Amino acid sequence: MGSVRADRRTELGLRRNWAQFLLLVAVNALVGGTLGQERTVLPLLAEEIFGVGLYTAALAYIFAFGLAKAAGNYCAGVLSDRWGRKPVLVAGWLAAVPVPAMLMFGQAWGWIVAANAVLGISQGLTWSTTVVMKMDLVGPQQRGLAMGLNEAAGYLGVAGTALATGYIAAHHGLRPGPFLLGAAYIAIGLGLSVLAVRETRHHAAAEAGSGHWSAPGSTAGSLSSRQVFMLTTFRDRTLSSVSQAGLVNNLNDGLAWGLFPILFAAAGLGVAQVGLLVAAYPAVWGAGQLVTGVLSDRYGRRKLIVGGMMVQAVGLALVAAGGRFGLWLAAMILLGAGTAMAYPALLAAIGDVAHPQWRASAVGIYRLWRDGGFAAGAVLSGVAADAFGIPAAVAVVAVLTALSGLLVAVRMPARRIP
What we know:
Layout: H1 18-39, H2 41-48, H3 55-58, H4 60-83, H5 85-96, H6 99-105, H7 109-138, H8 143-172, H9 177-195, H10 201-208, H11 225-235, H12 237-266, H13 271-299, H14 301-321, H15 325-353, H16 359-388, H17 390-411
Protein name: MFS transporter
GO molecular function: transmembrane transporter activity
Subcellular location: Cell membrane
């Protein structure tokens, strides 16, 4: 992996790098918005415009998105370590440019699936890079806070755009209006990334030279891509625990994205109510991370991860049992709260263990597995829903989420935060 020499003036910490940090927060809100343009509208497009009958077929776009984003995450980590963070961020925005047009004008369901594969690559490159850049800037002491702010911005972007596109779709139709908003986000995000975002790899070099790190299996912190993959996936108890929990977390998010709007609409709710429910989950998820990231700095990552997975399981169980707007709204709030507890703690735990020289690669591998959960969720929930109905599919995922939390409790060691 490549290396870079830190400038003597390079300083770590949120206070010292606040302007660039807040710029990256804004950029990630736009990244989230490009995903949020789909959350309310695409499941309804599948059913109402393209007449896709089977749930398994309808969820093909989430499967394509998950696989492509997982690959994009991995590439973002490896390329960020080799070439720097900013080029990868800009490449991610460039990849997103054709997506709104494909969604607006695609005349077959295959075009929608293809658009989601392209969007997945873009999301993997952009979101992973903003995560790594914030880790670079803040150093070890405020990593949970940094991840909370990053993920809050991204998922509030998802929520706000899901709500806005639901309103646009209710008043102006499912196409093209909702996707014009996504096109605007891409133009602004690309412009900011090219003109205003600065490279942060030298901050990671400064942290690596601080003398506070001892990497698993390597005192120098220099590992091959294969070694990092094996550590993150299997060998290190913290990294592997986090990777499986991330996969299950996004497995249930894939379920929520693909099937919840259909479930709510089938119960007689209007598009605006469906949009409100769909938006409530990422809104609570996003806003909650402003608090939970700091709590993970104070009380440790494992407690937040285990508790978050259990709260998500309860929320999913309520979705399976519910049949009216009020109960579903409570379930969405619980699901969002549980995800908010786990999400920034999972990312911060990677930063706690991974040496700065290979941290971007470890983040990319974690996010490879985490966003592979979208693909796993699309297949599992689609097959289960076709065979037994949507409530049964939700119940299955609720059980898997609880089991994942128990595995973290047993396998992941309590660890002092650097």
